[in-house]
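Private note to self, pasted from the team thread so I don't lose it. Backbone tokens:
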């Protein structure tokens, strides 16, 4: 058996295993966490006495490495400052 034949056999075996795994429905795991129920948005939100200030909110833009922009929301600068 040549090297290419061995690689082809491995590739076909991997394809067969993946297709068999995809065709069967996932089994529920015993003791798995159930999705959390949503709380009332008004009760769990910020207190009404402290209105959000625009200067405290950050831009929130993320770069490719996952860093977040630290400038204020809606900044006029074309560049972002990542932290």
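Design output:
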């Amino acid at each position: 058996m040549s090297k290419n034949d061995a690689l082809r056999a491995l590739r076909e075996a991997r394809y067969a295993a993946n297709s068999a795994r995809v065709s069967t429905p996932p089994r529920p795991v015993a003791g798995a966490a159930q999705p959390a129920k949503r709380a009332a948005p008004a009760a769990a939100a910020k207190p009404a006495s402290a209105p959000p200030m625009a200067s405290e909110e950050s831009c929130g833009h993320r770069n490719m490495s996952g860093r977040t922009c630290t400038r204020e929301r809606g900044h006029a600068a074309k560049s972002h400052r990542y932290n």
